[in-house]
Task: structure prediction
Amino acid sequence: MLDYMRSNRREMIAAFVLIVLLATYLGTHPRGPSTYVITIWANQATILGLAAIAQFFAVVVRGIDLSVGAVMALTNTLASHLLEGSALDISFGIMAVLAAGAACGLLNGLLIVYGRIQPIVVTLATASIFVGLALLLRPTPGGAINYDLADAITLDVFGIPTALIITAILVFGFWLPFRRTGLGLGLYALGSSEQAAFQSGINTKTVRILAFVLAGLFGGLAGLFYSFVTTTGDAGIAANFTLNSIAAVVLGGVLLRGGVGSLIGALAGAFILKTIASLMFFSGIPSLAQPLFEGMILAAAIAIGGADVLRVRNRLEIFGR
Result:
């Protein structure tokens, strides 16, 4: 038990902070801990949670994805054109939206690996392309999403928000099995040391490309879920979600130097960030001051992450003597 706590201390700290903040939020909300309040909170947090997962897959291989919000904008506007009509039409639309997200990630990965360009440069450039495509699809916010499907995804099942059920499925149905696969282990090996991963026989190029494909896929999922929550398409959502996805992974204990952290931590960081925003809203803090507080929280988290990097470097210097 003690070993488990040590190996997962970052996720456990993030979970503890989230529980405290959520309890405070529900205790201060005028309507209390009702299903309605929790559902609204869960929907908003899950959107950012999916974006944070997308960012996690880029960060864990020692990269960063500045196109996460742009992929969300593109897939959201695409969904606003495709998620109407018959069940078959909607099913095709969902697959097309997710395929578009994965294709964006594939483009990023190919440019990074075979173009030998830093991820931050590639994703900054492709973000402009994706936002441009989103603006072509939706110059102004609009479109429509099937309301019955949107309600099914964003309401609750026997008092449990569907968004939390989806989150649980991602953790237990996807992440826990995935992290033990060859690709899951390869992501951590590549993030820890590319040279060591290569010498161990890992195809580092393929792993890095697949990491960005997963980032694009989950960016597409975030855009899709955003579509269900808002039932419309909006090309102007990119910048906010990109910055907050980076903040979320840092708050969730995912180190920017790569190789450390988990999807669970990224989710917890996203839920923490959204809970803080909700708390500030109901505590009477002016809305214009909210970015200041969020920036201070992010700066503190990055400082802690930077201190961890320095500790690792100091250990290496000691061992190298």
Remarks:
- The beta strands are 156-157, 160-161.
